[in-house]
Request: fold
Amino acid sequence: MTATTVAPHAGRHEALQPGSPFTGVPSLLRLALRLERVRLSVWIAVLTLMMVYAPNAVKLAYPGEPQRLARVNLLKTPAGMMLGGPMFGRNETDLGVMMANELMLTLIVAASILSILTVIRHTRAEEESGAAELVLSSVVGRYARTSAALILVGGVNAVLAVTMTLAMSATGFSIVDTAAMCLGITGVAMVFGAVAAVTAQLWRQGRTATGAAMATLALAALIRGIGDVINTSGSVLSWFSPIAWAQQMRAFVDLRWWPFALLVALAIALMVLAAWLESSRQYDDGNIPSSGERPNARPITSVFGLHLTLQRGQTIGWTVGLFLAGLTFGSMTKSLLDAAKGNPLLARLLTAQGNDGVYTTLTQFLAAAATAYVVGAVLRVYSDEESGLGEAVLAGAVSRWRWLFTAVASALAGSTVLMCYAGLGNGLGAGITLGEPQTIARLTLAGLAYLPAMAVIAGVAAFAVALRHSWIGWLAVTFVVVSLYLGALLRLPRWLIDLSPVGRTTAPSHYPAVALTVMVAVAAALTLVAGWIYRSRDAV
Reply:
């Protein structure tokens, strides 16, 4: 009798390879559509509605030519160029030009994040969780999963291009320029979907692959911003970022289509690279080997330390990002104060919290961004539970109470670092611009005043983990952002806006001791209830 030994990874995978490397793509695509139908529908609806809401909001915020000129002067500052887009010196107060200038970057980032998360979820994350092994037990080609993920993302971006174009053109904009603007947005999103396909082949961990793709997106936005600061119409440096290619289509100014061809070519090249990388690796492995053992590394002696270690990369990335955002926001302080003098709506928005309304508003914006970090850090408990990684911890002498509570504590520890550096960046930008060094310490302290708000959001995220509904945590982040950014423009009732813990925190204008104390109590209650539910329910 003879026996045949099959290699645990490559042998089994190769034995099941069909004739065509793309066999099974239609079936995988149908499965992905079924799994993602709700999430993708919500994304498409939200981004499409933005194309209806934004023109009306801009008209309300800038009703006349003087207000629009003030807005142009504000966005021509270095900070304004970083947060908006290039200014081409023509029709700068035209509503279409304002839309392209202010809205494109936001929508590019949102659509790109959607593409990145979708591709990683159906490629690397499935391998990491073991779900892909069930798929590969059938007749599925080597490139089928990645191809299905990219086709899905391409379809979503195609739908977005159509729906956003129809929505915005229905409000009175030129359909050709609107189509160019929307194609530029979705073209960049497709590029970063392809970037995610590449990172999914390079790294074995889904979080690392996602972080690398997100970091590439952030780097592209930074390069574009710096390039446009050098030259408001776009410098040579700007062209090193695909985001600039979409903006350089110059919708509503001097429309040109050839930069879109660059986006198509780059997306195709990245897809080819992803295919080549996938062909050169084994299943459940990456082209870049995981870091090996480090004999001199300090041991992790506590569950809290384990959480901090797991989210270390995420914390560093968010800290750098919020520090730079704070520096950018702070440098806009003088321009915002000057612009508010001729814009009643802007003046009402910035002075809603007292004489230091501009500082409060900018600090609240930074805190709203930090809530996404807090939710992501706590929800990692649920993702680890789904993938089976948390089972190794809970199999030891670690209770479910302790595992969840230390996750909340580590998220708050990370948010402390984030808000400290966000406030420091904000203070540096404002202090240098206004010539007030004392503002640095003041705004750094103001950033830390938002920790009770972060604790409430962390409690909501813990509740989401306990109920096995991660969308609850992200719904809380969405509410904080919408109430803060759009509350005044939508004229939402005051009581609804006050439900936001970030909105209720008004530092540095005022430190509401009662509100902060209530937030701490609410956060503790939410976390305790979440811990009780989490301990009582069965594992996933």
About this structure: Residues 1-18 have pLDDT under 50 and may be disordered. The CA atoms of residues 299 and 430 lie 42 Å apart. Residues 25-61 form the longest helix (37 residues).
